[in-house]
Design goal:
- The protein is α+β, with helices and mostly antiparallel strands.
- It has a single domain, classed as Nuclear Transport Factor 2, Chain: A.
- It has 9 helices and 11 strands.
- Helix 3 runs antiparallel to helix 4.
- The longest helix has 17 residues.
- The radius of gyration is 17 Å and the shape is globular.
- The N terminus is likely disordered.
- Keywords: Signal.
Length: about 260
């Protein structure tokens, strides 16, 4: 989630879009209706021409909520109560607020299927490795993350093997003053109104799609968000976050 501020994320989630010496990240701040930035700005000389053009397109994207098709193979199932579904949906938001990397990894391993997808207005990633990096960046680069949540709403789809939990929430992000270059690139605080939609495989009782739709913010096309997700994960690895994740990971998950 750094990739977004990589933080500006959410369904809200804010996510950090981190840069290194050749990249810079931008964030559309709340309350500025004339600002159509999506949160990612990469200097053209730092990337191949086609990538620069792609990111230019991203910067001029029109308003729209983050979307994302479901992973294939959602299993059928039954007998999962609404209360259990609400708990799983709430755990997805707990991962965003979590301030302990080891605990956050445990939440992902427990509640997210290995091929789970995370989508917000500027990023689209699939699988545990990318999710660890994006969620972990919220701990590394933000001093505090708070979500004010409305009650979860459960939506059933008969015979589909899935259910969705929708949670409207307001997200507060406070930048870490010791977060390296991030403190120079982003405002001290960020506020987002977010529609969080968590899709659950009823048989596995795990999340297969977590969408953070930032209300009133721009969302580029899906292929742009995929490029953003891949690029920011690479930057986060370069900045050393992968080593921290490996150190906090249960040993059996590293083998």
């Amino acid at each position: 989630m750094l990739s977004r501020f990589s933080a500006v994320r959410s369904k809200g989630c804010l996510q950090l879009l981190l840069l290194h010496s050749t990249c810079r990240v931008g964030l559309a701040t709340p309350g500025n209706s004339s600002d159509t930035r999506t949160g990612v700005f990469v200097q053209p000389e730092a990337v191949p021409q086609f990538a620069a053009q792609t990111l230019q397109t991203m910067n001029s994207a029109t308003n729209g909520a983050a979307q994302g098709p479901l992973p294939q193979g959602a299993a059928g199932g039954s007998g999962v109560s609404d209360e259990e579904l609400k708990n799983i949906g709430s755990k997805a938001l707990d991962t965003l607020e979590c301030r302990d990397l080891k605990k956050q990894i445990e939440l992902v391993l427990t509640y997210y299927r290995k091929d789970a997808r995370f989508v917000d207005n500027i990023m689209d990633i699939t699988g545990h490795p990318g999710i660890f990096l994006q969620f972990g960046s919220l701990i590394k680069y933000f001093k505090d993350v708070k979500l004010e949540r409305q009650p979860p709403q459960v939506h059933h789809y008969e015979g589909s093997g899935i259910a969705k939990v929708e949670i409207m929430n307001h997200q507060h992000y406070v930048i870490n003053p010791e977060g390296g270059m991030a403190r120079y690139l982003f405002p001290g605080k960020v506020e987002l109104d977010v529609q969080s939609v968590v899709t659950i495989d009823l048989k596995a009782k795990q999340i297969i799609n977590h969408a953070e739709n930032w209300q009133g913010k721009s969302a580029p096309p899906e292929f742009i968000r995929k490029i953003s997700g891949t690029t920011t994960c690479g930057i986060l690895r370069m900045l050393g976050l992968q080593k921290e994740i490996n150190a906090a990971m249960p040993p059996h998950e590293l083998s």
